[in-house]
Specification:
The complex is a heterotrimer of chains A (397), B (477) and C (438). Chain B has 477 residues and is an alpha+beta fold. Chain B has helices at residues 12-15, 18-28, 38-41, 65-78, 130-138, 156-162, 169-172, 175-178, 206-210, 244-256, 269-279, 299-315, 327-338, 340-344, 362-376, 402-421, 440-443, 446-459; strands at 34-35, 58-60, 82-85, 102-105, 112-116, 121-125, 142-143, 179-185, 191-195, 219-226, 228-229, 234-241, 263-268, 289-296, 320-323, 349-352, 355-356, 379-385, 390-391, 393-397. Chain B has a seven-stranded antiparallel β-sheet with strand order 15-12-14-13-18-20-16, with helices on both faces. A five-stranded antiparallel β-sheet of chain B has the order 5-6-10-8-9. The two termini of chain B are 30 Å apart. In chain C, helix 2 crosses helix 8 (92-106) and helix 5 packs across helix 8. A five-stranded mixed β-sheet of chain C has the order 1-3-2-4-5. The longest helix of chain C is centred in the middle third of the chain and has 21 residues, at 238-258. With 438 residues, chain C is α/β, with parallel strands linked by helices. Chain C has helices at residues 7-10, 13-24, 30-34, 36-41, 48-60, 67-74, 81-85, 92-106, 111-123, 127-140, 144-149, 154-162, 196-200, 203-214, 230-233, 238-258, 273-279, 282-285, 293-302, 306-311, 331-336, 342-349, 370-373, 375-390, 402-409, 419-426, and strands at 177-179, 187-191, 217-221, 267-270, 303-305, 324-328, 353-355, 396-399, 416-418. Chain C has four domains: 7-106, Fumarate Reductase Iron-sulfur Protein, Chain B, domain 2 (Orthogonal Bundle); 111-162, no CATH class; 172-311; 324-435, Rossmann fold, CATH 3.40.50. The chains are: A alpha+beta (397), B alpha+beta (477), C alpha/beta (438).
Chain lengths: 397, 477, 438
Amino acid sequence: MLTPHSESDAAYVIRTAAAEGKTLALRGGGTRAGFGNAVEPAQSVSSRGLSGIVDYEPAEMVMTVKAGTPVAEIEAALTANRQMMAFEPMDHRGIMGTSGEPTIGGVFAANVSGPRRFVAGAARDSLLGICFINGQGEAIRAGGRVMKNVTGLDLVKLLAGSQGTLGFLTEVTFRVLPVPQTVETIAISGLDDAAAAKAMAAAMALPVEVSGAAHLPQTVKSRFIGGALPEGEATVLRLEGLAASVSVRAGKLAAVMEAFGPITRLGPEESLMLWREIRDVHPYADGTLKPLWRVSVGPSVGHQLVAALRLEAGVDAFYDWQGGLIWMRMEADPEAELLRRYIRALGGGHATLLRASDAMRAHAPAFEPLPDAVAALSARVKQKLDPAGIFNPGKMG
Amino acid sequence: MSEAIEFLPPRPAVLSRRAAIIADLADLLPPECLVHEARELVPFETDAFVSYRRLPLAVALPKTTAQVAAVMKYCHRYGVPVVPRGAGTSLSGGAIPQEDAVVLGLSKMSRILEVDYANRTATVQAGVTNLSISEAVGIDGFFYAPDPSSQLACTIGGNIGMNSGGAHCLKYGVTTNNLLGVKMVLVDGSVIELGGKHLDAAGYDLLGLVCGSEGQLGIVTEAVVRLIAKPEGARPVLFGFETSEEAGACVADIIGSGIIPVAIEFMDKPAIEICEAFAQAGYPLDVGALLIVEVEGSDAEMDAMLKNIVEIAGRHGVKTVRESQSATEAALIWKGRKSAFGATGRIADYICMDGTVPLGKLSYVLNRTSEIIDRFGLRVANVFHAGDGNMHPLILFNANDPEDAAKAEEAGNEILKLCVDAGGCLTGEHGVGIEKRDLMRHQYSDADLRQQMAVRSAFDEGWILNPSKVFPLDGRT
Amino acid sequence: MQTSFTPAQLADPHVAESEKILRRCVHCGFCTATCPTYVTLGNELDSPRGRIYLIKDMLENGRPADEEVVTHVDRCLSCLSCVTTCPSGVDYMHLVDHARIHIENTYRRPLMDRLIRGTLAAVLPYPRRFRAALMLAKLGRPFAPLMKRVSALKPFGAMLELAPSSISGASDAAIPGTRPPETKRRGRVAILSGCAQPVLDPGINEATLRLLARLGIEVVVPEGEGCCGALVHHMGREEQALDFARRNVDVWIREIAKGGKDSGFDAIIITASGCGTTIKDYGHMLRLDPEYADKAKKVSSLAKDITEYLSTLDLPKQEPKKLNVAYHSACSMQHGQKITMAPKNLLKAAGFTVRDPAEGHLCCGSAGTYNILQPEISAQLKARKVRNIEATKADVIATGNIGCITQIASGTAIPILHTVELLDWAYGGPKPAKLAAK
């Protein structure tokens, strides 16, 4: 494992590898190891030597840190100033069965976002600027530290979520937001998946600023907040903000949601725990390697997808993002092909195989296969950043 | 007309085939979709950045993605440059053509194809105006959030090209944060779709890359955009201050206190006078600087937020606080603000700058801007999105006086460099276009630019898409 | 915007004025969005910004008008929606007026075009000729579909289709003389009888006279006035337009003088907003005529739309009626004269429920003779307007311009009335015949 301690070291390491034609695995804390297509690069480069907060201006809501900085360190600094990363990066250790420290570079490289994503944006939406080493060992800067910036091509977005296949992040600058004064959750009980989709769409059409909308069917519900959710399936809606405002909005939301089913209101403590567990996919953090899918589709078709799959295989699933994000475990083996066929039939989206046995990873592409023209374009883009093809070749397909 | 910024020399091989190219395009498009008579080309020679003008070779106004693809395929085959155009409201010259280019205008593709409330999306053709989306869904309690000041006229295609922002982006983000998918014609005429009603990309975030790429990567013909439920109410409040410094400090304090209003807009005295003359919105005329702070939500929420904001403003010596009393008044307040650029035309020609600076540097940059303007003997009106540090100094000059025009351009360049030096960037939401192209080296290193250009060439190896824009002409790869 | 005119060019006061107008334009493009032809055709050449540019290019180069410029300027409705939108205050109205005069003076139109324009200019402004022509049109109507198939004859076809099926005789309302008020006199006004309106719908001015009489307003119908000149003005026939203007100025100034010092007019009442826009512009049109400049200015300052005048009279609030009124604001009303709230407020006070159709800023396609000269675009705009109006589920449509009434009536079954006819009814007049079934 190579652990450069400066940008120039990192550039040197990569330049050398490129010259020698050696492939590299780019790593942060290794908490997402095992994610993506199985690849075995010759060497690993870790960002852990590049750690520390470079600049944090709470009044400007902007933070610049080195890419290997532990997420925990960043969160501690933010919490001290009552700020947060609005995109709620999930902690993959539970479901992946990994240990180690998640790093901020890893968060952005994998574009990791939690329940607030569907209203507040993904990690990539908070990311303002980056420094990275391209495949030729050049240090490249893109974006900046101001929120509005359209100077040139947005390489920031391109690198976010590129899973360490386009460049080695050395520094990131991102926007942070104030922590909401309080949080409350409205839980509607006893809705089936289809009814829940309707209820969540109705909630999102109200002017109450719902910041989390998840549906937890029977099979998973009892595994949240120590089994304290009320009887029946739970459709949960989160409200955040000033205390005075949250209580008013909660009243309005509850008044409309009553038509769908019995309402229970969860206070701040239970809410924080619930949404953290939803974020971290708690029910499936079971220490197994049972295949786990993360599916993104239009919110209104999520439940249709699950219903269709259930006709052909056993499916265990729950929904976040108003139903558009499905965390799913399936029993049948040829699941990848089946799942992806249905996604296409329902208007498109993508399925990512997050966790699987080695045997399964060997034959099922972890990422959604792209249409030919898009795949070709993506390959050309990769070639422009990593001409020698040394960064995690094959990891994304 | 200014000459300081060069365009690429026209390709002789294209110019010499002009007649043949027009004849071929006429085979690809219905007659009403092709403009080629010399006199009819003149109105397409510029956009809202009128300092520069170039006549195009022809103008294609296709009605379908298939026609866009056919034109693109043809132009690719014969190496004819293509300059995409939405409503031609670019303030950085993004839609200014060149002599050997076919302008590809999307103005005939202006239909809203689908509104899907269950998924909170609208699927629209690229030539749809920004405002018409909000108008179409407003009755059902939704809106499309990014609101560039030109939203009445500018198109979604153009917004995507420039990753446009607007006053309300402080809370809702800019175009890239509200764009879910596009249908796009690549340089060779093939058609791809990126994204859709679902979130996040399956592979690389090409959608994120395309947004803000100024027509250099392909021609977007359709878009899926995010709709948001309209807040229960919204209230713009006017805060008048003696000085710009006080107003600037107040902005930093509001944000620093953890309150994020939907919008914080700043106007200095000249800007206040200009906007008031047009909109008669009741802006106070006896103050040196004005903030328009908008809060939204229920009455109780707005009251609570405003109480905090008024308190903060009080600490900065606010002189006037005036809440809008009705929806009509609120609309007038915004009408005045959003018409600021155009309304400036009542008193002089202007060029509109678009730099972004860190919030803490607002006052510093404002003061330095005045110094620069004074040094050149010009006048300036400042109106900008203070909440995110996006400044829009309007440099006033006389377009019929070449010397004055040159001075205005030079002063503008200095101001933009100042923004970069203060830790900001050359453009917040108007794009680089032709205007800021040669300043790119001030913000980026050679390696940075080379990398961007390399990625660009993954989409358009022959550099035929909007080729005179964004990247300095030397050192292209 | 930068301009390039020589001092010699600028010596012409018309060019000088246009140059001033052009200098104000900053080419921001806002005007494109609210322009009916741009919205319909999606070509910047058919937008205000495009036309401004075409006109600028033509005037700067001192060129005679050519087919391209004429095509796009002809397509302009002169609805002035762009003027409402323009933040820079570009006086597009007078710029396009200048362009039309320039076209008329320097461009020879194709034969059929000349013929139709000549016919319109010779007939429409003269009530007797117009009435006779409508009689003939009744006979010609069966040929309309045929004519619409031949491109050069399309305007004739459109004309035939627009002609009403029943034609009323000369109206009493147009007979010169003074109408005394029915109650204590509280005002004195002159009224414009106009040219086409009394032929197409004499009921409008009849309702106006009844209402004003009941409100205590003495109304003078002056002897000798006629067409305001708008119809020919919009064709660029400036001399003819100015002649009409001078004649009307003479008539009104004479009437004012007749009344002596105390009994001048409070207003010159106009019941067709298209005419109102032009009469309010007399001061500008005749500014270069030393003999008429001041008189014309005086007339313009007295000109008031009927709703504008009624708003000053504080009409009492009436009991709500169960009638939904879609208010269609004529372009000449909302953009030309900037009268937006007055008619709606009057209708509301009179007890009607007023509904605003969507896209209210867009023209219905009538625009003077536009529906005859540009039948295709006009038809598309009419369909769009009718769609928006019908979406309001209104019982009746109210508007303030005869052109719109004729145009919209030809596209919908919902009855359409002049605002003043509804007000007359609400304040004690007879129920309009068109509402018999409601």
